């Protein structure tokens, strides 16, 4: 996926447009096919359905051109480094069957969005009413402790049973597994995914209300506590300077957010799951103070 990011290994970089297409990147390898990022906001289409159909047809052309050559399709449910971009609701439901029909498998990268961050959806792929063949987990899995996992089908896992031993020196580490289990228990006991939904909905509303007062806040998108705020100038062009002004102004008050997107003009808001409504009020009121000064 254009602007996708899937890691820093050699092959992780090869499939990460965010890495290979940036300054210092080696460019796209011949064996990689690149799907356009299906971003609805700013696409010029009058509806999400029109945008979804357009991006699906563009990707389907590539699939048909390379029919029976494609091993896998990988995408994040919300494209983080692309600017917190949710996919159109019907996009993956069209792409997955087309990939499988020519022999490929479908991979959902849940490293950023998984484990309840999206509120109503414990896993991002649930937003789109599809089931991947492989799900990649990491980051929040250990709440800071380094642990990751790959979840897949019995058919795929059994394909490794060919006599050639498949193992990892640190795989299944009991300390890491205990930490991962503790994280799951806390999420369940404290209903953190429900809290992410409530808090995220409240924050999203505050940000949209702020956007009605300050038109430079052009779009507020995302789910739960995984939100993006796109900043545009008076000519509806990406405003990287103002986005950085807000990011750095917040940092000076000990509030940490990031910026990303192709033009680095999207505020990335991904707080810890215990972020509460008082924290939301502090964040948005500080943003308003900064906007008043600019």
Provide a descriptive summary of the structure in words.
The strands form three sheets. A four-stranded mixed sheet has the order 1-4-5-6. Strands 7-8-10-9 form a four-stranded antiparallel sheet, covered by helices on one side. The chain has helices at residues 10-14, 17-20, 48-65, 91-101, 154-158, 174-189, 192-213, 240-252, 277-293, and strands at residues 72-75, 78-79, 85-86, 105-109, 134-137, 149-152, 217-223, 226-231, 258-260, 266-269. It contains nine helices and ten strands. It has two domains: 10-189, Type I PLP-dependent aspartate aminotransferase-like (Major domain) (Aspartate Aminotransferase, domain 2); 192-293, Aspartate Aminotransferase, domain 1 (Alpha-Beta Complex). β9 (258-260) and β10 (266-269) form a beta hairpin. The protein is of the alpha+beta class and 294 residues long. The longest helix has 22 residues, at 192-213. α7 runs parallel beside α9 and α8 (240-252) packs across α9.
């Amino acid at each position: 996926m254009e602007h996708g990011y899937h890691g820093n290994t050699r092959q992780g970089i090869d499939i990460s447009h965010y890495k290979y297409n940036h300054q210092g990147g080696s460019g796209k390898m011949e064996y990689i096919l690149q799907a356009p990022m299906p971003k609805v906001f700013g696409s010029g289409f009058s509806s999400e359905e029109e945008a979804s159909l357009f991006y699906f047809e563009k990707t389907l052309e590539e699939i048909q051109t390379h029919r029976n050559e494609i091993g896998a399709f990988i995408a994040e449910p919300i494209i983080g480094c692309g600017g917190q971009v949710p996919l159109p609701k019907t996009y993956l439901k069209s792409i997955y069957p087309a990939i499988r029909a020519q022999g490929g498998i479908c991979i959902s990268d849940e490293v950023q969005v998984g484990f309840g961050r999206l509120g109503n959806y414990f896993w991002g792929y649930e937003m789109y009413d599809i089931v991947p063949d492989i799900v990649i987990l990491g980051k929040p899995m250990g709440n800071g402790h380094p642990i990751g996992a790959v979840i897949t089908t019995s058919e795929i896992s059994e394909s490794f049973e060919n006599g050639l031993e498949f193992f990892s020196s640190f795989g299944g580490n009991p300390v890491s597994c205990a930490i991962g289990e503790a994280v799951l228990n806390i999420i369940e006991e404290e209903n953190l995914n429900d809290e992410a939904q409530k808090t995220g909905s409240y924050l999203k509303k505050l940000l949209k209300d702020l956007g009605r007062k300050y038109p430079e806040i052009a779009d507020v998108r995302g789910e739960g506590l995984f939100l993006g705020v796109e900043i545009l100038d008076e000519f509806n062009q990406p405003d990287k300077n103002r986005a950085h002004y807000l990011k750095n102004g917040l940092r000076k008050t000990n509030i940490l957010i990031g910026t990303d997107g192709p033009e680095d003009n999207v505020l990335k808001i991904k707080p810890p799951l215990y972020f509460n409504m008082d924290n939301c009020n502090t964040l948005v009121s500080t943003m308003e103070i900064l906007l008043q000064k600019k």
